[in-house]
Design a protein that fits this description.
single chain, 305 residues, mainly alpha, 15 helices, 0% strand
Amino acid sequence: MKKIIFFLMLAVSATPFIKSHHALLMGIILGLIFQNPYPKESANASKQLLKLAVVGLGFGVPLYKVIEVGKNSILFTFVGIIFVITVGFIIGKYMKIEANANKLISFGTAICGGSAIAALSPVIDANEKEIAISLGVVFSLNALGLILFPPIGHFFGMSQHAFGAWAALAIHDTSSVVGATSVYGNEALMVGTTVKLSRALWIAPFVIFFSLKNRKGGKINLPYFILFFILAAFINSYFQSLKTFWDFLYVCSKQLLVITLFLIGTGITKDTLKRVGLKPIIFGIVLWIIVGISSYFAVINFNLI
């Protein structure tokens, strides 16, 4: 029965009538009520499909826009990262969050969610429990961000440009940034994905800093697929004779993203929420609210991106 429900929901997610947030909600409902019969396969598939979807979305983005937004956002994102990590360390210490979990949640919130956590964890000798807790917190808030951010943006009358910048700064993972901004509009998607790239590029120098501080080497897991997003934007901009084909790839990629978000949603289960615990979730929420409010006012009032 579980398998039938899973494949029915997966098939529905592949139709053009289902939006990103609907697919994610379907996945969460499946994970919490019925449970995903293929948890490992779905997790692995969602990671690869997400990369393909983000690259394909580049075929709908002009390259000059990517360059302009990236150039304007890289310094601003660096300042924001320093602010979030510092505030996270202070709040986490006050709440008596385990040191490594504090670092991982703060780092994941500041830069790039799961990718940042995966890159930092071997450098600070984080154990499986600390990694699982951190990923659980970030993963849960990602799902929430995808659902909440578009209506909040519309409520405050945010332009597509402003919303894209805000989502990229305030939402943890690339998947939820892409999902939220694609719902909001094409310009929001372009700005959000590009600013997210600027934010993700800081993984390497910060991991190197922690590595030197701890005098330990570690594998740096960078989201290289975002660079292929830029390559796709280049191809789309300079080979206009095949524009119809690029547009087709863009539409297919948006639908692939919907399927991916359904699979991501199925990963939220009762066991996941129990394993994370209440205190780290509260810590993640408090830090996230601070990031969301501060980045919103920075984007609206200072127009730095």
